[in-house]
Amino acid sequence: MATMYLGDCDQGKQPQNRQLYLKPFHIDGLLIGKVSFRDDDRTKWRSFREGTGNDILKLQQFLHKTGFMPRCAFDGVFGYVTQAAVRLFQEYVRSMEHVTDMVPDGIVGSGTMKHVERWQQANKVAEWATITAANPTKQYTDWMNLLHQAKSHYETNPGPVLKHLNSLSKTYSTKKPSDWTFNTNDIHLVGVRRNQTQSTTQRENDDLFFLLINGMVFTFWGSTDSSVNMAARKDEAFLIEGQHEYRFGWHKISEEKKIYRALKPKDPNGVMILRDWDNDNALTDTDLKVTDSHGKIKGMQVNNSINIHWSGIGTSNYSAGCQVIAGKSYINHKNELQDCSKFASSSYGGLTDSNKQTKGAYNVLTDLILCYAPENVTSLYYTLGREDSLALSHNFGTQFATNILKRLKSV
């Protein structure tokens, strides 16, 4: 069997119109109109390549049956969803079955095929396939309950930032508390912001992200705050707390050597931000009171460049206002810490054929979203809150975030 990877097609299955086939995915910047796949872990383009036989179809059927590719089209094309599902399978074998030499790179060679065949012989199914929003983990239920409590609390007690938001006629991809939605059929990403009021010119990756998907919770870390040395201006942007709708998309869409999968505001106008108007390198309520030369309060702005993207392995905060996620480690649906440091790259330099590194834990996030999104769902709800909001539920508390972050950084 030949090695299979992004762009491979079964015999007779190469799309006649490659641009049309890729159009649902290539909706940003330089990707628009492209007729090749973007292999973002190798920072290169992959052409469609037609082979013999139907190995891709068999692989897709396996991934679907075992629970890694629920939204499979069985089209015989090794596309983005197939690549994501392969990486999830490889990550599952690595992390859940403790096969330490497995690297989740989305390439199916002889090593990966041995595990495919082993699973087929044993008729195995991933634990992820047995958990659903109707049959969720306790952690998922606890988070959904907290989110509903938060909506009820902040509708009644909005605070300065949300009061200002409520006064605006247009909020674009940002939702007012009365419009927050927490349907279990949707994908939810929760951001927990810490230390935002502390003045510093070099912000750390000290915030948390919780992906709520298909009845499971996966935990990541990074930063929700802008690092001054990354911002193009002194009054750096902070995404406001609350709920925002984000769509599947790409980051660095104007730089061909750096394009990779990320999340973008669903409304092309963007999301609501509050700038560090008083230049104290912190996000405080004072920023809502600063006025311009005419005495008018500057207040919030809409910004279309606040994406959710990768932040290397977490040693540096690569954010100019975006929500950034580290690749070094994550915590899985069973609350088990997973170390990705052996293959996670710290920068673009590691994402080459020779280095064979990946974006590590960040890929787990984007692959889960791509594979487990319900049919025709191309967006998720990102709810950003401050650490003290965790005290709304006895299942969390004020030390919850600190303790989780220590675990994630311990690898």
UniProtKB/TrEMBL annotation:
Gene3D superfamilies, per the entry: PGBD-like superfamily/PGBD (1.10.101.10)
UniProt domain Peptidoglycan binding-like: residue ranges: 52-91
InterPro entries: Peptidoglycan-bd-like (IPR002477), PGBD-like_sf (IPR036365), PGBDSf (IPR036366)
Pfam families in alphabetical order: PG_binding_1
Source taxon at top rank: Bacteria
Name of the featured protein: Putative peptidoglycan binding protein
Source species: Mariniflexile fucanivorans
Lineage: Bacteria, Pseudomonadati, Bacteroidota, Flavobacteriia, Flavobacteriales
